Structure formats: C-alpha cells, structure tokens
Amino acid sequence: xxxxxxxxxxxxxxxxxxxxxxxxxxxxxxxxxxxxxxxxxxxxxxxxxxxxxxxxxxxxxxxxxxxxxxxxxxxxxxxxxxxxxxxxxxxxxxxxxxxxxxxxxxxxxxxxxxxxxxxxxxxxxxxxxxxxxxxxxxxxxxxxxxxxxxxxxxxxxxxxxxxxxxxxxxxxxxxxxxxxxxxxxxxxxxxxxxxxxxxxxxxxxxxxxxxxxxxxxxxxxxxxxxxxxxxxxxxxxxxxxxxxxxxxxxxxxxxxxxxxxxxxxxxxxxxxxxxxxxxxxxxxxxxxxxxxxxxxxxxxxxxxxxxxxxxxxxxxxxxxxxxxxxxxxxxxxxxxxxxxxxxxxxxxxxxxxxxxxxxxxxxxxxxxxxxxxxxxxxxxxxxxxxxxxxxxxxxxxxxxxxxxxxxxxxxxxxxxxxxxxxxxxxxxxxxxxxxxxxxxxxxxxxxxxxxxxxxxxxxxxxxxxxxxxxxxxxxxxxxxxxxxxxxxxxxxxxxxxxxxxxxxxxxxxxxxxxxxxxxxxxxxxxxxxxxxxxxxxxxxxxxxxxxxxxxxxxxxxxxxxxxxxxxxxxxxxxxxxxxxxxxxxxxxxxxxxxxxxxxxxxxxxxxxxxxxxxxxxxxxxxxxxx
Length: 626
Known about the structure:
By secondary structure, the protein is an alpha+beta fold. Helices cover 38% and strands 23% of the residues. The chain has 19 helices and 24 strands. Strands 6, 7, 8, 9, 10, 11 and 12 form a seven-stranded antiparallel beta sheet that branches. A five-stranded antiparallel beta sheet has the order 2-1-5-4-3. α12 packs antiparallel against α13. The longest helix is centred in the middle third of the chain and has 44 residues, at 229-272. It is elongated, with a radius of gyration of 42 Å. The N and C termini lie far apart (102 Å).
C-alpha cells in the first residue's frame, strides 16, 4: 500500500477511493479528502461515523447528502465492494454527484409543474414527434377526443384527431406535414370539426406549432385545441335572432321602395284612361317603363344579396360602364366628376348589370354625403398583382377603380360595419346597397376596400380581374344584325307562364314569326323531333329553365342537341342566379334571356342567335353533365 506508484495512481482518479481491511482504513485518496473537506487522519478516525466502512452484511450503492466542515452540503454516491480473494479486504468508491442531483431535482420539479399546468389548462394539448406519433396528451385532450393517453400513446395523430372541414366535409390537410413544411405556427380552419371515436361531432378551434431544440431543429409538434361547440351554437342563435330582427328592417325598406315604384306604375296607368292626347299617354307609358326598370334593379340587388346571384359575365369595357353609370347617378345634381381613366385599360369579364349596381351604390353614397361640396374623382388603372399583395388576391392582371369624394366621411366607429348586411345610417335606408356591392365584387373574384376620415371624405377602391380574352369588346350590334328581318322565321318555345306566353304571342305576331309554344319539356322535344324528321327545322328554340311539375330547360336542351347538335337554343329564366344562366354556353345554349325582358331584348337576342356560328360546348371545372 505504501508503493509510490500505486498512491499516485489512486490520487489521480476523479472519484474518492478508500481501501480498508476489516474495521480499519488503510488507504484514503486525496480526492476523498476533497469531497468530504476533511484531512486523511479525520477520515481514518471517523470512518465508521461517516458511514464509509461497510458492515459486510449488505454490499450496495448508497446515495446521501453530507454536510461538510464549511457548512456546505454535497450529494455523494458510495459504492462498496469486498475483495473476492480476501473477505477482509474492501474498498469504497465515492463520487460527488451534487450537480447531477440538483439537475435531476430541477427536472423533476419542472415535470411536476408541467404536469400540473397541462392538467389545469382548459385547452386540449397533444405533443407528437416529427413522424406524428403521440408522445403526450393532457386530461382535456382526453376529454375532447374521448381517448385515454394510455391508449393513444404511440399512435399517429390522425387516428386520434380526425378533423374535417364542416362546410366542405373534406379532411383537414395533415397538421404534422404542414408544420414540418412551413416550420411555423399554423392555425387550422375555423370551420373544423372533430369526429370522435364514439361518432360525436365537435366544433373545435386549434393551432399547431413546432417544438425546436437548442440548435433550432424541429424535434416535435404541439397541437392545442378547444371545444367550441357550445360557443358556436350560442353564436348561431344570436345570429338567427339578429337576422329575424333585421328582416323586419329590410322588409320595411323594400316595401317602401316598391310602394314608390308601384305608385308610379299604378298612378300613370290610371291616368291613361282619362281623355288626353297621344303625346301625354306616350309620356305616361315612358314613366311606367322607367318605374319598371327601377323595380328590376331592386330585384337584381335582392338576388345578388341572397345566396345566389352568380354574375352573368361578358367581355366589357369598364371605362364605358363607369362613365355611363356615374353620369346617370349624378344627373340633375351640381356635382362634377373628374375622370382619370387609362387609355389602354384592359378589358374585363363582368356582369354589366351587377357591376353597374356596384358603381351606382358607391357613387350614390358619395352624392348623398356631398351636400356642400361638388366634386367626385374617379380613376381606373391597370394593376398587375404579385403573389403576395395587400388584397390577398391571386397574382394576375387587375383593374383598379378608385372613387374619391370630399363629403362628410365615415366615423371610425362604424367604418368596419358599412358592408354588413342591413347596416345603414339613413333613416329610410335598407342597408343592402354596399352589402350587395361587396358581394358582387367578391363573386367577380375581386376586392373592395374603403378609407375614410370625418369631414374630409371617403375613398373606395375596387379591384376586379382583367380579362385575358382576345375578343373585341362589342359596343354596338353590327348593322347586318340590326337590319335582319325575322319575318317567317320559325321559333319553338317552352314556357308555362300565361303572362309571358301572351307577351311572346303578341311579339311574334307583330314580327310575323311562325311559332309553337309548349308547356312541358317532353312535349317540346316531341315537337322538335317531329319537325326535324320532316326536315322542317325550327330556326330558334327558347327554353324556360323552370317548369313546375314538368321538365324544364336543362332536361330539354340535352335531348334537342342529341337530335340536332347544331340547334340554336336560348335559355330563359327569372332566376339570374341560376347556374345555367351564369354559364349558359357550358350547357349548350347560344344566348340567354333573363326575365323580365322587353320586346327589344327579345328581338336582339333572337337575331344574335340566328347569326351565331357553329360552336362546341364550353367546359367549366366543377360542372358535370349527364
């Protein structure tokens, strides 16, 4: 034991070494003295008291706290062993594991805090590894998913969080893949629903975030979600009550507007029977026609405001539409409009009637808010949007229309409500003007935005897609179409409304057209087939799309085109939001007549169809033909 080499070796070991023979210590390393903060003599003297000498009954590893001479505490590990050849010889290896012990205690406390925190959180929390395998799940997550952590541990997240979009009923894209690809926090669809293993449907709101290590490497993902089913039901009830209340306001406003229109019609009709000159009656008829146009405009606004109202688009010049609409609205006022329109403005594919409503409603608001000032400025420019733009629109070519007035402006507290249904600051307003404008622009794939300041004015910006069509924009009907005679043309009609039938009969008789009117699609097909076989073809077919209790236009055109693919057919409907009216060429129609239409509309449409060339049915993604 007194060998110098042996002692140097023992003293260079990082752990404390004590060697004993029976009940006495024969060697103590320098590191042992450092750990205990005692000289060798005291260690040898108080070895038993320091619990260094084993009792030869239980040879094991002991961990304990010791208090040193300077009052500090250390946590040590003693490992005892007996020499196999001589049972009297034993040794002890002492390791200072204070730092490890403190780290373990800290980790244990953090785990306890985390467990307590997760347990008390009102949201469901699930953590997964980068492969989507569940590693942790709190009690609320168990409650919402109807799964226990024990049964869910190690399973793929998709097995536990079976999430669909409530509106489309399609599965939500894989959460784990989304986070791994974006490396950012993602928010799941607000219309997300969870289908539990018990078959229950739960509305949830959730988000997912990456868990990163100290090297910024993703090592897992945490998903936080909450049950908002009750909240959704409460919101729906509140919305339902608001709608019921608002319908009363809306109905009152509509009734007021229609009563004024009907007054003009009824009043002038009653005057026609009085003794008067032809000139006076012509004037009264003109007033009746103007009032009828107002009724049509109001009906179109209501259709657009309703769930349907898909735009019936044609290639158009927005500059021409802007000038015509604005000049009409400002007619009779002292307000001047300053137009600044690009000469090379791209064409647009729009529903002219609907876009007219948009411009009309905004300019009318500017006019009404401009009692003392007399200037409105309108600009129209080409704008090519990139992938990331302030309007959140797809990257392509757009037309930007800006309408600026110098009126009273909009208060800050209500500017976010002006596009809300039924919201109005006018005592007699219906609150659907700007709402329908917003709806129309959205359905055209565009964006509408407002900036305003009280006593300074308002600025409305309208962004609508430019058209990629190479077609020329038709301003007027070609002369050869206008001069076309309809005398002796043969027209087959599918229509069941007596008033419309009377109008068509009178119109066709006036035009010396040969016609046949049927009130059911089956009869219409039979009539067309009979004449086709006799080689006595109808020049034009007009089909009403809706025949209550019978076959309508969609059924009929399929069979007529089967008989004669070159048939020239016009779609007719009182529903401007009908999918066929919006996409008539997709279904094989050459043109459309949206009710109510007048004599001029009827003649013009028939002439256009007669001059239309052979064409193949257009196709549109999302529409399936049988």
